[in-house]
Design the sequence.
């Protein structure tokens, strides 16, 4: 997290990624993530998947181009 960089390796693929910590990032990004969970699972079924505690453990990985 300190460098906001990582390497993801899976069989047949290795890519450099940028990391964004959703817990301290843009509140718009947090809202987008929470809304995506609500849309996928229904507002009553998201429980611990949304909110401040969930955001504290959520990272966004973007492929470095």
Sequence:
């Amino acid at each position: 997290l300190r460098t906001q960089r990582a390497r993801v390796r899976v069989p047949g693929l290795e890519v450099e990624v940028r990391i964004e910590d959703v817990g301290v990032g843009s509140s718009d990004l947090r809202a987008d993530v929470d809304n995506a969970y609500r849309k996928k699972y229904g507002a009553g079924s998201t429980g611990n998947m949304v909110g401040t505690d969930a955001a504290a453990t959520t990272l966004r990985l973007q492929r470095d181009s």
